Amino acid sequence: MASYDYDLITLGAGSGGVRASRVAASQYGARVAIVESSRVGGTCVMRGCVPKKLLVYGAHVAEELEDAVGYGWTVDGARHDWGALIANKNTELQRLEGVYHRLLRDAGVTLLEGRGRIVDPHTVEVDGKTYTAGHILIAVGGRPILPDIPGIEHAITSNEALDLPARPDRIVIVGGGYIAVEFAGIFNALGSRVTEAIRAGQILRGFDEDVRSTLAAEMEKKGIRIRRECQIQSIEKCEDGSLSLLNNCAEEMRADAVMYATGRAPNTEGLGLDAVGIETAQGGAVVVDQYSRTSVDSISAIGDVTDRVNLTPVAIKEGMAFVATVFGDTPTAVDYDAIPSAVFSQPPIGTVGLMEGEARTREPVDVYLSRFRPMKATLSGRDERAMMKLIVSRETDRVLGAHMVGADAPEIIQGIGIAMKAGATKAHFDATVGIHPTAAEEFVTMREPVPDPSFEHTE
After folding, report:
1. What pLDDT score was predicted for residue 254?
2. For residue 1, is pLDDT > 60?
3. Are 131 and 112 in contact (CB under 8 A)?
4. Are 152-261 and 341-444 in the same CATH fold?
5. CATH for 6-144+265-326?
6. 262-273 per-residue burial string, b: 16 or more CB within 10 A, e: under 16
7. Which of 50, 195, 299, 415 could connect to 225 by a Cys-Cys bridge, CB 3.0–4.6 Å?
8. Which fold has domain 152-261?
């Protein structure tokens, strides 16, 4: 029997890799090492979900202050200190990184600091030193990518946006995905003049159409300028330090910062995958089966590097399933059906299950839709509308999709995701007593479906 330095070497100390490594070591007694060239915690904790959500909280205070007047408060002299927000955010990230280090230590996982490269099916090289393992887990995540246009060196990504020394007065955000709309909300609420440039005709490709149009309308009411069918051709730095952007309509756009959020790519470059024979897809994602196994028996991959469902909780579930399969002798596959997700835009989005268009291509459905002014806005005077939507199978009455744009949408959708996972029907929703007065009660009080798009009125 072969003798290895470790039972498992994990490449990447993000959420998925850390969870898999800890569980393999603490619950199954495996000898585990984890390799990381940057900060322990990965994209989500260090340069993604967590710091972004902290900035979202900070930005949302601006609206709370405005709304307070309608509730009788006098707010004088309030001002925002961008530097203080960033410093406080960084302090929290340092605390979290310390927690992750301790979790690894307590589980008995060895941290190998450096860039890892796979040498053969059982060997990893870290900064010139080799280590062997019975199994190798690739969990290196992804990174933002930038297009090849003149002047792209003047642009930043979400990584740099989280640590800008000063808030730009004017910012152009290129891209229409969830990262782009989230940062547009952050900068706009804190006082920047924001332009979002998108190639398509609407933001948030891949989301339900009512979600897309509702959020776009709310963003524009808040003062965010969305430039549709707009492609940036070049960027130049001006003498005064500002940036000049030329678009496909021969229009010049001026800004103090340009942030690209036009896509991400798996971090597979330099990992040695080709030399070992690991199959990758176009774009570099590691190809895996339902059990996260690559084309090499001893090597598996989880998380964003596989480009399946790029969400932190999914990577964690994939890590747990990998450990159960490899060390628990219990082949376990992740169920990717009806995964709840959120966009922390302003207002936020919560969504789970099928979009209306997607559902209609599969079977006849009934769609229930509600748009309303949140109760809080009655005294604050804020011009904001919420949207809730249910997609229901006409044959089985099962709820196939639920979507919301409005305050607390992510918190509300989490509970609905549980109900859908349990097979809830529209009758179950109808039989549930609503909590009044809340926005969430709307999901259990929608009674009449909207007309089918194929319906034609006749006299």
Report:
1. 97
2. no
3. yes
4. no
5. 3.50.50.60
6. bebbbbbeebbb
7. 195
8. FAD/NAD(P)-binding domain (3.50.50)
